[in-house]
Every structure is written in structure tokens, then in C-alpha cells.
Design goal:
By secondary structure, this protein is of the alpha+beta class. The chain folds into two domains: 52 residues; 44 residues, no CATH class. It has two helices and six strands; from the N terminus they run H-H-E-E-E-E-E-E.
């Protein structure tokens, strides 16, 4: 695993937020006009590395996201979110499936408003 060249800290030990801040700082430095080519290439390489690491962490977090679903018998359960072809999480019911549940006062709630 690589490390932050400024601090020597291992990337695997860094939080997502710390890595994101480093990426922002890297991009900020790359935007400078007076940057030597060698430094720009090193920063670009580090930026790509950080971008890939952050994407991997986001993918892992996405796999842990669940939605609350109504179960037969009136209880609730957790179900993994499904990814759509665009990569966004889909939290709706299956095609043609109608999902309803009871609110805190015991009133039935369904997509049709009933």
C-alpha cells in the first residue's frame, strides 16, 4: 500500500475524509501555473492513485448500504440496495410490486396513498 508523500502515513490507515482532502490539495497544487513538469507528473500520479483508492472505498461502503423493507406479518427487515445500470442505488419495489407498511400510529401506508 502506498503512503502520503508529505506525511509518510499509510493510505490504508487514513480515513476517507483525509484521503479526499489530500486529493483536493493535490488538485489545487496541480492548478498552479509555476509547477515544474516533474512535480506535476508526480502529483498527477498521486492524484490518480488517490482517486482509485477513494473509488474503491466508496464501492465497499455502497455494498454495506441497505434499505428497510416491510415483511409479511407486519415486521421490517433489511434488504441490500440494487444498483441500476447507471450505478445509482435503486430503492423502489420490483416492477409491478406494491409495497405498503404501517406508520407509527398503526395506519396503513401504501404507494397509492391509502
Amino acid at each position: 500500500m502506498t503512503s502520503d508523500p508529505r506525511t509518510g502515513a499509510r493510505d490504508s490507515d487514513a480515513t476517507y475524509q483525509a484521503l479526499f482532502r489530500e486529493l483536493e490539495a493535490t488538485v489545487g497544487e496541480l492548478e498552479r501555473d509555476d509547477l515544474p513538469l516533474e512535480r506535476a507528473m508526480a502529483l498527477f500520479s498521486r492524484g490518480v492513485e488517490l482517486s482509485r483508492l477513494l473509488a474503491t472505498r466508496l464501492d465497499a461502503a455502497e455494498q454495506q448500504v441497505f434499505r428497510l423493507v416491510a415483511e409479511a406479518g407486519g415486521g421490517f427487515g433489511l434488504e441490500p440496495l440494487r444498483a441500476t445500470s447507471l450505478g445509482a442505488a435503486e430503492a423502489g419495489p420490483e416492477d409491478g410490486e406494491e409495497v405498503g407498511f404501517d406508520d407509527r400510529e398503526g395506519r396503513s401506508i401504501s404507494p397509492g396513498g391509502g
